[in-house]
From TrEMBL:
This is Glycerol-3-phosphate acyltransferase. Pathway: Lipid metabolism. Its main location: membrane. Belongs to the 1-acyl-sn-glycerol-3-phosphate acyltransferase family. GO terms for cellular component: endoplasmic reticulum; membrane. GO terms for molecular function: glycerol-3-phosphate O-acyltransferase activity. SUPFAM superfamilies: Glycerol-3-phosphate (1)-acyltransferase (SSF69593).
């Protein structure tokens, strides 16, 4: 058996040994087979298996794919019925819904602007009225897609040191929850009309927006969260700890931020029924405006919302374990499959930490085999 050569002095600029440094003196990695050589010891099959697994069963990508429903208009009498439905949805329902939404905006703006400008001296009353107006506007939005929302469990109330956490499928989750309670929501900043609403109306109900790909922004948000939960009169905080929209078949990793605030976490499970339309917002394929138009031209948006039993950190439990326990509760209630991925990976290359841990485990397996031989 070939003896493993003593580690030669490192030749890399970074002072890490190269694989060649483990070879017997005078041999190279390309030496022909015969005697047992280093390359015989490097079994890459686990790595290959993992790579092939990622291609065959990529559970990360599957979380963010719209899953089309079965077509039902495939025969001679169903097809005309479907055509009739298209005409009704686009020519009757859609214009009626545009009118409803326009009326909603008119009522909202004609009340919100005076309340915001004229009640500066009476902060408590102004905040209360603004809260009610935002809830009202959200009711108009829900009506504009004929939302059929069933709420289960006790309605959220304003209590200090409480955080609501929900699974996330579309920005309409925000509207559906907001029509019952004006939450202060942690949100990604958007461009266009959504961004304008975020920095005006939504900021006035305590919503906190940031850019999730900026570490500095995340740091500031983490501090704002801690301050917010201490304020007794602040609107209840709502966080979508997945940090991105998932297709309502899976839940991805819950970021620990919401679970390290020393608060009670109130889980909210949201499950959409895809009978008329898929409510998943695939932001890579569609703008939010197009998403809303799609909902407004469907028959209805049907969904269930469960306000579940509040949870507190168990003795000895870490933030990550707490996050995982709450994710379990939500996933079970909404019938969603848990996958371990970090949703932010949608927007970034794998972190150096993740890459290095993979390199480390591969290097360790090689060294283990070298020592066994
Ligand atoms: C008026 C009506 C009009 C209506 C009509 C218009 C609609 C108007 C639009 C509204 C819009 C609403 C929709 C809002 C919905 C969003 O916008 S969702 C997107 C934004 N929200 C979020 O991202 C919330 C989730 N994120 C968090 O909770 C983050 O923790 C915070 C709070 C941002 C803080 O971030 P942070 O300080 O970086 O800390 P954290 O993320 O916990 O991570 C630290 C480290 O721990 C690791 N880590 C975290 N958790 C875990 C874990 N569980 N296991 C292992 N490692 C972990 C992280 O990976 C990270 O590692 P490194 O990357 O440093 O290596
Ligand atoms: O699905 P994403 O990652 O584009 O996230 C959408 C919003 O920013 C969160 O609601």
């Amino acid at each position: 058996m070939a003896t493993v050569g003593r580690l030669r002095s490192s030749n890399s600029e970074l002072d890490f040994p190269n694989i060649e440094d483990y070879l017997p003196i005078g041999s190279t990695i390309n030496d022909p087979a015969g005697e047992l050589r280093l390359r015989d010891l490097i079994d890459i099959s686990p790595t290959l298996t993992e790579a092939a697994g990622a291609i065959v069963d990529d559970s990360f990508t599957r979380c963010f794919k719209s899953i089309p429903s079965e077509p039902w208009n495939w025969n001679v009498y169903l097809f005309p019925l479907w055509c009739l439905g298209v005409l009704v949805r686009y020519l009757i329902l859609f214009p009626a819904r545009v009118i409803v939404l326009t009326i909603g905006w008119m009522i909202f703006l004609s009340c919100f602007i005076p309340v915001h400008l004229l009640l500066k001296a009476n902060d408590a009353l102004r905040r209360k009225l603004e809260r009610l107006l935002v809830e009202l506007l959200c009711c108009f939005f829900v009506a504009s897609w004929t939302g059929v929302v069933k709420y289960h469990g006790p309605r959220p109330s304003i209590r200090p040191k409480q955080v609501y956490v929900a699974n996330h499928t579309s920005m309409i989750d925000f509207i559906i929850l907001q029509q019952m309670t004006a939450f202060a929501v942690i949100m990604q900043k958007h461009p266009g009309w959504v961004g304008l609403l975020q920095s005006t109306i939504l900021e006035s109900v305590g919503c906190i927006w940031f850019n999730r790909t900026e570490a500095k922004d995340r740091e500031i948000v983490a501090k704002k969260l801690r301050d917010h939960v201490l304020g007794a009169d602040n609107n209840p905080l709502l966080i979508f700890p997945e940090g991105t929209c998932v297709n309502n078949h899976y839940t991805v990793m819950f970021k620990k931020g919401a679970f390290e605030l020393g608060c009670t976490d109130c889980p909210v499970a949201i499950k959409y029924n895809k009978i008329f339309v898929d409510a998943f917002w695939n932001s890579r394929k569609q703008s939010f405006t197009m998403h809303l138009l799609q909902l407004m031209t469907s028959w209805a948006v049907v969904c269930d919302v469960w306000y579940l039993e509040p949870q507190t950190l168990n003795p000895g439990e870490t933030g990550i374990e707490f996050a995982e326990r709450v994710r379990d509760i939500i996933s079970v209630r909404a019938g969603l499959k848990k996958v371990p991925w970090d949703g932010y990976l949608k927007y970034s290359r794998p972190s150096p930490k993740h890459r290095e841990s993979k390199q480390q485990s591969f290097a360790e397996s090689v060294l283990r085999r070298l020592e066994e031989k």
